[in-house]
Design brief:
Layout: H1 2-11, E1 15-19, H2 25-29, E2 45-53, E3 71-78, E4 90-95, H3 107-110, E5 115-118, H4 120-137, E6 147-151, E7 155-156, E8 160-161, E9 170-174, E10 180-189, E11 194-202, E12 213-219, H5 220-224, E13 252-256, H6 261-275, E14 287-291, E15 311-315, E16 331-338, E17 347-348, E18 350-354, E19 377-378, E20 381-387, E21 389-392, E22 406-407, E23 411-412, E24 422-428, E25 441-452, E26 456-465, E27 478-485, E28 493-499, E29 505-511, E30 524-526, E31 531-534, E32 541-544, E33 547-548, E34 552-553, E35 558-560, E36 566-571, E37 580-584, E38 610-611, E39 622-625, E40 644-645, E41 650-655, E42 662-667
Parallel strand pairs: 32-38
Antiparallel strand pairs: 1-29, 2-3, 3-4, 4-5, 6-9, 7-8, 10-11, 11-12, 12-13, 14-15, 15-16, 16-17, 16-21, 18-20, 19-20, 22-24, 23-24, 24-25, 25-26, 26-30, 27-28, 28-29, 30-42, 31-32, 33-34, 35-41, 36-40, 36-42, 37-39, 37-41
C-alpha cells in the first residue's frame, strides 16, 4: 500500500502545458471575434498566461447579488506565421471551468472558446491618440500623429520628464509603429465592478524618455458577454480626468501610468542624469501592480469600504548610464492609497508622522481613524507627510545584483513564511556587457515597509534571493513572466511562458512546494533604498541618501532585515581607501539614528533635493573602515565587512565613500 501511494505521488506532474500552439491549434483558431491583425488566438506564439478572477458579486460593492464564478485565463497570442523573434502580441481571454480542469488536459476541455480582448493595432491607435491629446494640451503640437518634438529639459504636465543622458536639445517622441506587449497585470475594482488592465509596451522608435506603462478600464460585463475593447474603440478620456472615477459603462483607454509630481520631481532633482540614463519613470516596461492585500494605509481609511482601492506597485523606473536596453537595473516600490478615482495617476499613500520627538507614539498620535488624508496639522499637533516608497538604482553593477527582465504577480508573503512583506517572482538575465551569461532564470523579490514600531512607516524596502529559486529542472526550457497562483485546482503553481531555443513559446504551469517561494533557508540581498524626508510640515521634500562620491546620490541609509539574523555589508566597486561605514543593528538609542530624526532637516547645499546624515566615526553597533596598502586611491574589488548579528527589524548603514550602492547580504532564520 505504501509503494502504491509513493507511485501516485511521483506521477503527479511538475510541469504541465496550459496552452500550446501545437496541441491546441484548433482551439486557438476558434477565436470568437477575429480581426485582420488577430486572426487567431496564438497559433504562432503563446506567452504570459495567468488566471484572473474578475470578482464574485455582480455589481461589485454597489449592488451585489448572488455570487458567480468569474475565473478567466488571460494570455498573449501572436498569429500563425510569427515567432518570438518578432511577435505581434494581442491579448486574449477565455472563461475557465475549474471543475473540468485537469493538469495537462487540452484547452478545449476546460476553457470556453478564446476571445480577443484587445489587438495590438487598437493599442497603438489609443496610445497615439492619447499622446497627441496630452502634448497638445501642454502646448506641444505633434508634427504628425504620435510624433512630438519637445525640449529635453522640461517636465510636461500629465506626462513627466523628457530628459535623458546624452539627449539632444530637442527630443523626438515617436509613439507610432507596431507595439510589442511586455507586461500585463489586471486588478478587479469592486467599487464599480470593473477591471483595471495595466500593461506595458515597447514601440519601434522607443528612446529613454518614451512612456511604456499604460492602463485600460472596462466593465466585467465585457468579459461575460465575450466582447473586446476593439468593438468600442474608445481611445481615452481627456488628460485632466483626475478627481472622479472614469465611467464604468464601456472600455476606456486612460493613458500612461504616472506617479504624482512630488514623487517624480523629488527623485528627478536628487538623481539627475549623472547616475541614471533617464528621469522618465515609466519608460521601462518592467513593472507589477496589485491590490494592496495588507492595506498599508488602512488606519488612514484607504480601504474599499471608504471608496478607496489601495494598491502596491513595484517596477523598474530608470536605466543606468550608459546602456539603454529594456532590461532594468533599478527598483521602485510605492504604496498607492487609491487607484479607483484615477487609475492612470494614482493617489500616493502619505503617512503622517508627528513632529514631536521622543516619546510620542504611535506616529499618528492624536489623529482619528479613517481621516482619509494626511494633515500637516491637526488638533494642535504638527505632522510630516511621508510618501511610502523606496527607490534603488544601479542594481546590476555588482556580482550579487540583478537586471530585471520581467516581473510576475505580487502576493502576500504570509503563506510563504515571510510576514509583513510581499512576494514577487521575477525573471532576469545578467548584464552581458558586465561579463554575465545571459540566461533566463527565476528569483524571488520581497517588498516590506521600513517600520519603526513606535513612529510609523518611513518607506519601502526590498530584498531578493541571491541564488535562483529551485524550480523543477528543465534545461531545455527558459522561463518568462511568472505568476503565482493556486487557481484553478487549489494547488500552488507558477504560470509563465516556456521559452525554447528556436523562439518557440507556449503557456505552461510549474507545480511547486511553497518552500520554493519562502525566504527560509535562503540568502537574501538588499540595498538600502532611498526614502523621503520633509523639511517641515507642509514643506518641500528631499531624498534621504548616503553621501558618497561628490555628493552624488547612489544609495539610501536604511534597510529592512526581512527576518534574517545575520548581515554582511559590501561596498561597491571603487570604494575609497579610507571609506568608513557606521552600522546600527538595532532600534534607536541615544546615539543611533531613527526615521524621525531624518525628517525636518535642511537639504544638502550641494544638492538641495537630498539630505545626507552625518557619519559619526565613534558610534553605532559596528564600525568598519577599508584599508588598502600601497596608497591605492580606490579598491578594485568589493570590500566587505565580516558577518554580524542583526538585532532588529531595520539596519542603518551610513557610509562616507564608494562609487555605487551599498549591498547587504542577509542570512540565518
Amino acid at each position: 500500500m505504501v509503494l502504491l501511494e509513493q507511485k501516485e505521488v511521483f506521477s503527479k506532474p511538475n510541469l504541465v502545458t496550459l496552452l500550446s500552439p501545437i496541441r491546441d491549434r484548433d482551439y486557438l483558431r476558434s477565436l470568437v471575434n477575429p480581426t485582420s491583425t488577430a486572426p487567431d488566438a496564438g497559433v504562432g506564439v503563446i506567452d504570459n498566461p495567468f488566471f484572473f478572477v474578475a470578482g464574485h458579486y455582480p455589481g461589485g460593492l454597489l449592488t451585489p447579488s448572488a455570487p458567480e464564478d468569474r475565473t478567466y485565463l488571460v494570455w498573449f497570442g501572436s498569429p500563425a506565421g510569427t515567432t518570438n523573434e518578432k511577435p505581434q502580441f494581442s491579448i486574449f481571454y477565455a472563461k475557465v471551468h475549474p471543475d473540468q480542469y485537469k493538469p495537462g488536459a487540452p484547452a478545449s476541455q476546460w476553457l470556453d472558446p478564446p476571445v480577443l480582448l484587445v489587438s495590438y493595432d487598437q493599442i497603438s491607435r489609443d496610445v497615439v491618440n492619447w499622446a497627441d491629446n496630452v502634448f497638445t494640451a501642454a502646448g506641444y503640437t505633434p508634427s504628425s500623429p504620435g510624433v512630438i518634438n519637445v525640449p529635453s529639459n522640461v517636465y510636461v504636465t500629465n506626462y513627466g520628464y523628457t530628459n535623458f543622458a546624452g539627449a539632444p536639445s530637442t527630443v523626438t517622441l515617436n509613439f507610432t509603429g507596431t507595439p510589442e506587449l511586455k507586461q500585463l497585470h489586471m486588478i478587479y475594482d469592486m467599487l464599480d465592478d470593473t477591471v483595471l488592465m495595466y500593461f506595458s509596451i515597447m514601440v519601434p522608435n522607443w528612446n529613454p524618455a518614451t512612456k511604456a506603462q499604460y492602463v485600460y478600464k472596462f466593465p466585467v460585463s465585457l468579459l461575460k458577454s465575450q466582447q473586446s475593447v476593439n468593438q468600442y474603440a474608445v481611445s481615452g478620456l481627456t488628460p485632466t480626468t483626475t478627481s472622479t472615477p472614469p465611467p464604468n459603462d464601456k472600455p476606456y483607454f486612460l493613458g500612461w501610468l504616472k506617479f504624482d509630481s512630488t514623487v517624480e520631481q523629488t527623485i528627478g532633482n536628487a538623481l539627475g542624469t549623472i547616475v541614471v540614463t533617464t528621469l522618465q519613470m515609466q519608460s521601462a516596461p518592467q513593472f507589477a501592480i496589485s491590490f494592496d492585500w495588507y492595506k498599508l494605509g488602512g488606519s488612514m481609511g484607504y480601504k474599499p469600504s471608504n471608496g478607496f482601492l489601495p494598491a502596491i506597485y513595484v517596477g523598474n523606473p530608470l536605466y543606468m548610464v550608459p546602456i539603454d536596453y529594456p532590461h532594468g537595473d533599478s527598483l521602485m516600490a510605492i504604496a498607492f492609497a487609491d487607484i479607483h478615482k484615477n487609475p492612470a495617476q494614482p493617489q500616493t499613500y502619505y503617512q503622517p508622522i508627528i513632529t514631536g520627538y521622543g516619546f510620542a507614539m504611535p506616529a499618528f498620535a492624536a489623529l482619528p481613524e479613517n481621516l482619509e488624508s494626511c494633515p500637516s496639522s491637526y488638533n494642535g499637533y504638527s505632522y510630516y507627510c511621508i510618501p511610502i516608497l523606496g527607490f534603488a538604482g544601479q542594481l546590476d553593477t555588482f556580482d550579487l545584483g540583478l537586471n530585471i527582465d520581467k516581473f510576475g504577480s505580487i502576493v502576500p508573503g504570509e503563506s510563504f513564511g515571510i510576514h509583513g512583506a510581499y512576494a514577487i517572482p521575477i525573471t532576469l538575465p545578467p548584464r552581458p556587457d558586465w561579463g554575465g551569461i545571459s540566461s533566463m532564470r527565476m528569483k524571488m523579490l520581497y517588498v516590506a515597509p521600513i517600520f519603526h514600531q513606535f513612529q510609523g512607516y518611513g518607506g519601502l524596502s526590498f530584498a531578493w534571493t541571491r541564488d535562483s529559486v529551485e524550480i523543477p529542472y528543465y534545461p531545455e526550457m527558459g522561463t518568462c513572466r511568472p505568476y503565482l497562483t493556486t487557481l484553478p485546482d487549489g494547488k500552488l503553481k507558477v504560470t509563465m511562458g516556456g521559452y525554447y531555443a528556436d523562439n518557440y513559446i507556449d503557456g505552461i504551469a510549474i507545480y511547486m512546494d511553497k518552500s520554493v517561494i519562502s525566504p527560509k533557508g535562503k540568502t537574501l540581498v538588499t540595498v538600502p533604498s532611498l526614502i523621503f524626508g520633509q523639511t517641515s510640515p507642509g514643506g518641500s521634500y528631499y531624498v534621504i541618501a548616503g553621501a558618497n562620491g561628490s555628493n552624488v546620490v547612489r544609495h539610501g541609509v536604511v534597510a529592512y532585515t526581512f527576518g534574517k539574523k545575520y548581515a554582511r555589508v559590501y561596498i561597491n566597486l571603487n570604494a575609497g581607501n579610507a571609506t568608513f561605514v557606521n552600522i546600527y543593528t538595532r532600534y534607536r538609542s541615544r546615539t543611533a539614528p531613527d526615521l524621525q530624526q531624518m525628517y525636518g532637516n535642511s537639504p544638502n547645499p550641494n544638492n538641495t533635493a537630498t539630505y545626507f546624515p552625518s557619519v559619526e566615526r565613534n558610534f553605532g553597533t559596528l564600525a568598519y573602515a577599508t584599508d588598502y596598502s600601497y596608497s591605492m586611491p580606490f579598491a578594485t574589488s568589493y570590500p566587505r565587512t565580516s558577518k554580524f548579528r542583526v538585532d532588529g527589524q531595520v539596519l542603518w548603514v551610513l557610509i562616507n565613500g564608494g562609487n555605487g550602492p551599498v549591498w547587504v547580504e542577509l542570512e540565518g532564520d
